[in-house]
Amino acid sequence: MIDLSMWLMGNPTPVAVSANTYTKFADNDTSDSENSKFGDAKDEGTFDVEDLAMGMIRFDNGAVLQIEFSWASNIKEENRFVELRGTKAGLKWEDNEVEFFTEEDGQLLKPMRHLQTANVFALKHGITEGAAREGSKALLLKSIREHGDCLQTGFLGTSFIMDALTSCGVVDVAYTLLLQHKNPSWLYSVDQGATTVWERWNSYTKKDGFGPVGMNSFNHYAYGAVVGWIYRTVAGISADARSPGFKNVILAPKPDRRLKWVKAEYQSAAGLIKSAWRYEGEKWIWEFTLPQGATATVTIPGEKASALYSAGTYTVSAFGK
Question: Which residues neighbour 36 within 8 Å (Cβ) at sequence distance 6 or greater?
């Protein structure tokens, strides 16, 4: 679960993200997050890992990512760590190091390049740079297209994929995933009757009824991470890391015409923040409200410059957004 309580209370300590779930650093099939394998890696070093259970992610100032994990198949060891630094990352286990990136081009090893989750991690955490980053982006987009504009990520990858796409400047692809109705997708679950975000895309289907009860929560944080992206990117409401407690708010929506209107409210530590936008023909209209005592750094879609706003309610309009 992502614990934002310290930020909301005004404590700038980096947040620890605890997954507390059995999953792995790979992609999933259309029903759950535990059915894929890394695949054969004959020419790049063999991965004999059946399952990689990853527990706690600690991200410190964008420099070091440590992942506490346990080997859940051939290797019965727990509480090891993955350390990712700069453009090169390896899995350190005792005196050996299994590299995930090649020396030649800085990209993921060839047997992993088709995995959406692996590319999402490389992009989201800034592990690849320059041409290697563009390569990871291209591989991720290629995989999404080849799977019919559907994601193929498990619990960890799904929580990061929307932000990764947004940071790469392809927010339109993130919207395509958001608005997808095929399985797997968020709206596929909605089409099956979902009013919450489920643990499985097909926790319940109109055709087959309830899925396996052993792992079938009907209100689950993992795929529900998309709601955070909707607030941050669609509605445009984000915390300012330099001003914890929402003393200053980042307001920067990224609209898409396929979504005709949005209304969002967030009860922050500083008070109620509102953001609502809609399309009227070629005109885009945005209304937002800041609570008393708060300020906001506001960026209008399509513009690079930001402006500082004080408490109050504002209306902004633009054309062709």
Answer: 24, 26, 27, 28, 29, 115, 154
For 17-70, what is each residue's pLDDT tens digit? 222 222 233 333 333 333 333 333 223 333 332 232 232 233 333 333 333 333
- Compute the distance between CA of residue 116 and CA of residue 139 in angstroms, rounded to an integer: 8
- Residue 199 in domain: no
Check: CB of residue 286 under 8 Å from CB of residue 277: yes
pLDDT tens-digit readout, 184-217 = 999 999 999 999 999 999 999 999 999 888 888 9
**How many of the other CB atoms lie within 10 Å of CB of 234?**
24
Q: Amino acid identity of 148? A: G
**Burial class (CB within 10 angstroms; exposed 0-12, middle 13-18, buried 19+) of 148:** exposed
Distance CA(312)–CA(293), nearest Å, equals 10
Angle value at C-alpha 224, between 143 and 64, nearest 5 degrees: 70
Give the neighbor-by-neighbor strand order of the sheet with 271-280: 261-268, 271-280, 283-290, 312-319
Q: Where are the alpha helices (DSSP H) in 62-170?
A: 116-124, 130-146, 155-167
**Among 136, 158, 173, residue at a domain's last position:** 173
pLDDT reported for residue 128: 81
Rounded to an integer, what distance in angstroms lies between the CA atom of residue 264 and that of residue 165?
Answer: 22
Q: What is the CATH number of the domain that holds 252?
A: 2.60.420.10
